[in-house]
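Recall from the previous chapter that SMILES is a line notation for molecules. Here it describes pyridoxal-5'-phosphate.
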Amino acid sequence: MNELNRSTSLFDEAKRFIPGGVNSPVRSFRSVGGVPPFIAKGAGSKLYDVDGNEYIDYVLSYGPLLLGHAHPVVTEAVQTAAANGTSFGAPTGAEVALAKLVCGLVPSMDMVRMVNSGTEATMSAIRLARAYTGRDCIVKFIGCYHGHSDALLVHAGSGATTFGVPDSPGVTKGTAETTLSVPFNDLPALEKVFAEKGSAIAGVIMEPTPGNMGLVLPKDGYLKAVRELTKKYGSLLIIDEVMSGFRSAQGGSQSLYGIDPDITCLGKVIGGGLPVAAYGGKQEIMSRVSPAGPMYQAGTLSGNPLAMAAGIAALTYMKDNNVCETLAKRNAELTDALKEAAGAAGIPVQVPRLGSMFTVFFSEKEVTDYEDATACDLNAFRAYFHSMLEQGIYLPPSQFETNFLSLAHSEEDIEKTVSAAKNAFKKAALAASSGC
Ligand SMILES: *Cc1c(COP(=O)(O)O)cnc(C)c1O
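With both inputs in hand, we obtain:
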């Protein structure tokens, strides 16, 4: 058992001054129970908490750290930029460099606007789709997360086409009503929404390879069919690759599945661990963004020089070193071994993987949508999670999150992880069968 004395007292103090003690809810460990280790530092694949425990990190700040913690090319770029001033509110060459780099890596993007978070990127993309089409409604998929802006905090419950009901108090009925929700991987449900409301639909926003209900992969032909349907009705397709961008593949999931969206949202990896996100797409659409066009969107710290420097360093290193391909191979090794270990322990799991992302679902059947994901055995997950943490493996503290690999994860890290998982799956099997 790891000692967490210092973390425990920090958590108690944090809860007096910060709601729930955290600045983003999942960090509180609420769905698995226990005290979250408070982090002192990160290096490569490892996290170190304030109690002196060491962990192999599969959270990686929920995705951004493709190269691992404190990679020297990123750290040096940030230090150099900081010495020259941290913010100007005036254009810089670094913004041009990152924009060019991103448009080169993601061919559907002719132009791009930098913002500070994925939430801002998707919120702005939706405003743009509405401005461009002159329509009000948007369609999203149940279990896909696009940040916490009002219009997107809606999933409308299960079933086919329902008007949105807000997921959170504080979101008005009026806002939720223009967000239509359908299950992922269910083409007939989407066709039905379009048949009923097509001429009012500004756009469809989707994670092409959803990662926010755990990792769920699209069925064959599904994404192409969504693209065709949006075209047929004159609605825009907004592909949210805030998580999958530079993770599923260098060109994102859109490159893997051969789809050409109107607007793409990026975040996480694009900032190399600093706060950067972006939205971009076809020139004709992006020209509607202020000051080139009438759709207003702005940001005091957008295009921040430290953040641009980190993004340029991380993406350049990724591109020059085939990082995404290397990680996909390592991921295959790890996930195959995890499946084998679960089999040996007699606990049924599904382990979908894509690029440097994977999820261990405690489920007998394949997980294809939110309903399947929420049917997983959460007792088994909790037992697995806590056993891994005690053995020094830091996983996302929820069944409905994706695990990430970084370039810093070595063969030795993977062997340690698999050997810890052999124990953890046995604990999960006990928790599952006892149902406690
Ligand atoms: C993380 C995430 C967001 C939100 O990004 P923030 O930077 O947390 O606001 C949006 N969409 C997807 C797909 C994400 O994974």
